[in-house]
Task: structure prediction
Amino acid sequence: MAQRTTRAFRISVVAVTLAAALTACGRLDNQRHAFPADVGRTPSASASEPSTSPTDATRTPAPTGTGTRKPTAAPDPTGSLSTSDLDALSGEELLRRAKTAAKTVKTVHYVFEITRSGQRSKLSFDVDRDAGTFDGTVESDGAVVALRKVGAEIWMKGDRDFWRNSARVPSDVAAKAAGKYVLVPEDNPGYERLAAVAVYGDLGGVLSMFTPKGHGATTTLDGNRVVAVQCESGVAAKREQDTVYLRADGPLLLTRVDAADLGYFAYSAFNTPFHITAPPAAQVVDLAELGATKIPLPGV
Result:
């Protein structure tokens, strides 16, 4: 390729999708992971089919209790509680116990489906917090980009249509990159934006974004018993009304957030071994082969 050493990529869809998706997630406490500066200060960034949004037929509407009940003496916070025990606990106590239970979660699958400024985005990832790995996809307006992280190395992959039509690289570059993983340099501007995918695998950190209002009440979600807690999030000038769902059978683990006008976040596959490894060499194409040393992410 002519002057391949000076050719650069414009991976606009990746940038826009991640900016929209992760910044939208950041709305969840507005510090709410102010992005990217606060991402490293999130309390420790903590199967595998993507979760689907429950329908009205499968999800009982969340209760709207506004009173505050005093927490009662209860078993180990990570143990199962009866419906009467759950209904007797304040929202503050429920979230406290959920944060305790979250410490036991080392791997998790999450799906975020969000809409921001009319753009629908979906993130679906397996995250292994102990191993420092993740694997999954970011989807926006039909474009799908795979992201995989092992240690400090992050790879991204798109098909030929993505590279040619969305990333707008020359056809010869698109042909080489199609279906291949490309390693994102650690000093690449926007690298932290990609690494932030792991932050939302930290259930305790996510729960810290919410301020419970009133008490929780048991309900059903996809046929499973859960406790729903009405919460607020965001800054005082614009408080958002969200519903946090905690698994009622077994440890009180975060299973879903209905985030006001933003969308939903769903968690599953707790402590499922994922065994995420670096892509095989045959599936990787080097930036040098594509005539670039950096992957510019617009807006960074």
